[in-house]
Task: inverse folding
């Protein structure tokens, strides 16, 4: 049989004690003995009796014992030889432990080894003290009393250290408090026992018959002690029973009645284990505390209504069954509910080895079982009330149609997730055209559809995923904030919705629009995250994309968006907007012939606001009209200034479809040109391809009015609007601009190269100029030069710059052209006009931020 690790340590410590005792015994001296006629078997009997009869002082829930083992040890030091003392001690203690207490082998071995060491130590220390004090011939003199007390205190210290060490080896924790308590209690106990032993020795030496008087005194003391103990135990048990009742009543409030009953039962009866057994109609039982074996039946009389007490050492059939389960003693009492026995309360294994369960314990246990029955019955009533409350709470937090959590529960779970981790993702989905289902097939069919949708979504639930119905045909899913997991979940939802829904007489193909919002990117509160997921869902429904992530640019209710709407009007009034210009050049010569006007807005709070954000706001709020007027007026005025300065370039201005469709736009532009004395050919209007596609008939008429004024018209972002070649052929435009998405990676992408080549060839075949924007590297410039692109625009030439910087840039550019022309043609002055001659090298184009 394999020995547990703590037991191995105890065995090794026991061997160490025995070895130490052997060494001291071998080197121990011979003590002078007093002739008294004390027979060593009588001494052995005294050792046995002192082990068996220990005075127990229960204080509160602790049991403090007063042992008298040092008394026969001191008598043996005075009246018998060392071998006789050792034989008496080991035989008396061994009989008490083995036969009376039925101690385990390891406990028996440890106690015998400890007594062997105590006897050997007592002989050595007592002899040394007698010799040191000079009273080896008279050990019962006052100095001999002192030697005896010191020897017994030494043995007490040795015993306390040994017992504390064994307990620490078994429990794995060294307790200084336990050692301190053992030493303190042992020191007091040793004084009392040593005094009693010395008094007995003096009587034995001078008048042995006087022991009868000492015996009478002892019996009277025992009687008084017993009476005192009975009264003390009665009052103490009433107090403990009151504390038990109060603890159990308190437990009704925090749902821990069973745990409290078991804990208090162990404490009151000073037992190691407690359990409640519920017995079924077929005789089977269930252990609620988990301490009783499935084969245990020693407690059966208690189920018949009797109080069962099995003290330590009992020899009947029930006691044998108790010990077969690994217990040494036990109590069992019936538990009743409405007069019927429903279970059994049991406690086993008294915590100390010097006492066992007695009749008073049985009475206390019976009263305790009665209170426990009432408490457990009340607990059942409380549980039923609580179950009803929980059902009501469940209904208040769940959707009755689908059984899924409702909006309140979902929002609270989302708040807890955000508080715990700070990250989460919300998928909010809406069943498309659900109103048509209700209106056409009836609300009962609509309810069936919602139930089936809920059933399919419920399959997504696990520890980190929560599915809820928010109301109507809106459902929500709470996920971990991981992009890959979210995309996988969206695909899974799409697959589930792809299968038809069987609604009895009809099968429906249903789709859903899904909006996604993630924390902390899209919000840090549950309410904000839900609202933004709903915004994304309506965005997906409006754009027919099926799925959409939240975007503040498409949120009509975002704080930034509302702030920008009001501030944009103020910026127009205060002229806080600014035009920047980006030059356009011929790739073959490097000559700059045009510049695009780009609107810039630096917000005092938000900083730089891109046009892609505030232009849609202007279109949505009606500010686009005054905004376009401001851009046109500023661009015309600046273009005229450059022409007057001798650096003429064509200025391009972007106009939206709403501007283009204004009837008075042509008249407004004509008036601006006249006021600035600017030729119409120096102003170019850029219209996006998507705007033309949205309403081609009206766009055609609007462009014709612009062209009739002599203005140039350019199709911006060509290649992204899906316009047909037929429509492009019929449009009265002069130029197409290749979108930057096709130009940015031109040198590395064969697909982009093919598209750009086709657009340039197509534009030239239709008699149009072609402009490539987004040129950021020299290889792309050279490719466009080889493809005979008319104009290029991008960071390689120059970044967008304010008008003042652009004025200086153009002056240096035209001066550089004039110098180059004089170097190539002699001293002839450079021509001034709209088309300054002379090519520029790639090196000249790339020199510095000014392009010269």
Result:
């Amino acid at each position: 049989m394999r020995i547990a690790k703590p037991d191995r340590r105890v065995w090794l410590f026991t061997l160490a004690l025995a070895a130490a005792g052997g060494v001291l015994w071998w080197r121990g001296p011979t003590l002078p003995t007093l002739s008294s006629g004390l027979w060593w078997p009588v001494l052995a009997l005294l050792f046995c009796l002192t082990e068996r009869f220990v005075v127990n002082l229960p204080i509160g829930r602790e049991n403090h014992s007063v042992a008298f083992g040092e008394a026969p040890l001191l008598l043996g030091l005075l009246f018998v030889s060392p071998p006789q003392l050792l034989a008496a001690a080991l035989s008396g203690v061994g009989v008490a432990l083995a036969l009376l207490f039925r101690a385990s082998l390891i406990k028996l071995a440890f106690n015998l080894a400890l007594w062997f060491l105590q006897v050997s130590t007592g002989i050595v220390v007592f002899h040394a003290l007698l010799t040191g004090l000079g009273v080896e011939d008279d050990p019962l003199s006052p100095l001999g009393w002192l030697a005896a007390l010191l020897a017994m205190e030494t043995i007490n210290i040795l015993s306390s250290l040994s017992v504390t060490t064994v307990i620490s080896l078994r429990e794995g924790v060294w307790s200084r408090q336990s050692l301190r308590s053992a030493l303190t209690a042992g020191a007091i106990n040793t004084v009392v026992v040593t005094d009693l032993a010395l008094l007995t020795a003096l009587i034995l030496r001078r008048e042995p018959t006087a022991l009868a008087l000492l015996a009478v005194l002892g019996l009277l003391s025992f009687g008084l002690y017993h009476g005192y103990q009975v009264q003390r135990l009665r009052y103490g048990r009433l107090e403990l029973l009151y504390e038990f009742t109060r603890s159990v009543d308190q437990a009704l409030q925090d749902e821990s009645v069973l745990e409290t009953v078991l804990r208090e039962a162990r404490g009151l009866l000073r037992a190691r284990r407690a359990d409640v057994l519920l017995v079924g109609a077929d005789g089977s039982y269930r252990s609620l505390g988990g301490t009783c074996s499935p084969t245990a039946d020693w407690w059966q009389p208690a189920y018949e209504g009797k109080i069962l007490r099995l003290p330590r050492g009992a020899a009947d059939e029930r006691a044998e069954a108790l010990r077969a389960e690994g217990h040494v003693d036990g109590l069992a009492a019936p538990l009743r509910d409405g007069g019927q026995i429903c279970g059994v309360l049991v406690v086993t294994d008294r915590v100390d080895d010097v006492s066992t369960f007695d009749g008073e314990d049985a009475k206390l246990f019976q009263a305790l079982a009665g209170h426990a029955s009432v408490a457990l019955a009340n607990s059942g009533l409380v549980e039923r009330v609580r179950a009803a409350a929980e059902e009501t709470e469940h209904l208040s937090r769940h959707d009755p149609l689908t059984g899924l959590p409702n909006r309140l529960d979902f929002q609270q779970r989302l708040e807890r997730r955000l508080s715990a981790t700070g990250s989460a993702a919300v998928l909010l989905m809406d069943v498309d055209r659900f109103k048509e289902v209700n209106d056409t097939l009836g609300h009962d069919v609509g309810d069936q559809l919602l139930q089936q949708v809920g059933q399919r979504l419920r399959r997504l639930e696990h520890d980190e995923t929560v599915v809820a119905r928010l109301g109507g045909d809106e459902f929500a899913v709470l996920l971990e904030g991981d992009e890959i997991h979210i995309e996988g979940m969206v695909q899974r939802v799409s697959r589930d919705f792809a299968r038809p829904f069987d609604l009895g007489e009809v099968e429906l193909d249903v789709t859903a629009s899904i909006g996604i919002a993630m924390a902390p990117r899209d919000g840090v509160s549950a309410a904000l995250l839900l609202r933004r997921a709903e915004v994304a869902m309506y965005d997906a429904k409006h754009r027919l994309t099926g799925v959409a992530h939240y975007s503040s640019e498409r949120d009509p209710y975002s704080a930034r968006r509302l702030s920008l709407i009001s501030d944009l009007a103020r910026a127009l009034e205060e002229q806080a907007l600014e035009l920047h210009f980006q030059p356009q050049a011929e790739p073959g010569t490097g000559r700059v012939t045009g510049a695009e006007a780009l609107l810039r807005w630096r917000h005092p709070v938000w900083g730089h606001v891109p046009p892609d954000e505030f232009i849609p706001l202007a279109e949505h709020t009606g500010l686009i009209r005054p905004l376009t007027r401001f851009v046109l007026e500023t661009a015309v005025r600046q273009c005229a200034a450059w022409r007057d300065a001798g650096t003429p370039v064509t200025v391009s201005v972007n106009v939206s479809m709403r501007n283009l469709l204004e009837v008075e736009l042509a008249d407004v532009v004509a008036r601006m040109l006249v006021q600035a004395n600017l030729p119409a050919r120096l102003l170019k209007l850029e219209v996006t391809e998507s705007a033309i596609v949205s309403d081609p008939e009206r766009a055609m008429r609007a462009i014709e009015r612009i062209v009739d004024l002599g203005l140039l018209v350019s199709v911006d972002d060509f290649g992204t609007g899906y316009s047909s070649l037929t429509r492009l052929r019929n449009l009265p435009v002069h130029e197409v601009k290749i979108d930057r998405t096709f130009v940015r990676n031109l040198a590395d992408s064969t697909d982009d190269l093919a598209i750009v080549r086709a657009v340039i060839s197509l534009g030239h075949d239709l008699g149009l100029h072609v402009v490539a924007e987004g040129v950021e590297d020299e290889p792309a410039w050279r490719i466009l030069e080889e493809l005979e692109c008319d104009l290029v625009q991008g960071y390689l030439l120059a970044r967008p710059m304010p008008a003042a910087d652009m004025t200086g840039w153009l002056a240096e550019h035209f001066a550089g052209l004039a110098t180059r022309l004089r170097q190539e043609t002699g001293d002839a002055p450079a021509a001034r006009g709209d088309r300054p001659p002379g090519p520029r090298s790639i090196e000249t184009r790339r020199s510095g931020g000014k392009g010269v």
Q: What stands out?
A: The radius of gyration is 51 Å. The first strand starts at residue 55 and ends at 59. The chain is about 55% helix and 15% strand. Confidence is low (pLDDT under 50) at residues 57-64, 828-852.
